């Protein structure tokens, strides 16, 4: 019987020109492609906040993509914080 893969959860803030460029919608699309779960939303300070959950490979793929963003975005930096939570997300969505 195979055990469930280890699931990582990372809270992310993305700074730069990340609003008004389709960042959230593109993040949802990318998460679906790599199989990550969680959520993404705009914040009032002009940053984008996300919670990414998945295997180490899925989380790494999402963090790499979040560091670039979609065409039109200019990512100036990302801050990540590993979280230890019991909640498991079933999908990735835009809040």
UniProtKB/TrEMBL annotation:
The lineage of its organism: Bacteria, Pseudomonadati, Pseudomonadota, Betaproteobacteria, Burkholderiales. One of its GO terms (molecular function) is acylphosphatase activity. Belongs to the acylphosphatase family. InterPro entries: Acylphosphatase (IPR020456), Acylphosphatase-like_dom (IPR001792), Acylphosphatase-like_dom_sf (IPR036046), Acylphosphatase_CS (IPR017968). Transmembrane segments: none annotated. This is Acylphosphatase. It catalyses: an acyl phosphate + H2O = a carboxylate + phosphate + H(+). The active site is at residues 24, 42. Keywords: Hydrolase. It comes from Achromobacter aloeverae.
């Amino acid at each position: 019987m195979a055990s469930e893969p280890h699931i990582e959860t990372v809270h992310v803030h993305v700074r730069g020109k990340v609003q008004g460029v389709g960042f959230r919608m593109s993040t949802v699309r990318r998460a679906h492609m790599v199989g990550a779960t969680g959520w993404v939303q705009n914040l009032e300070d002009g940053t984008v906040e996300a919670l990414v959950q998945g295997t180490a490979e899925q989380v790494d793929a999402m963090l790499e993509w979040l560091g670039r963003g979609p065409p039109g975005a200019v990512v100036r930096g990302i801050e990540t914080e590993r979280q230890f939570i019991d909640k498991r997300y079933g999908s990735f969505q835009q809040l």
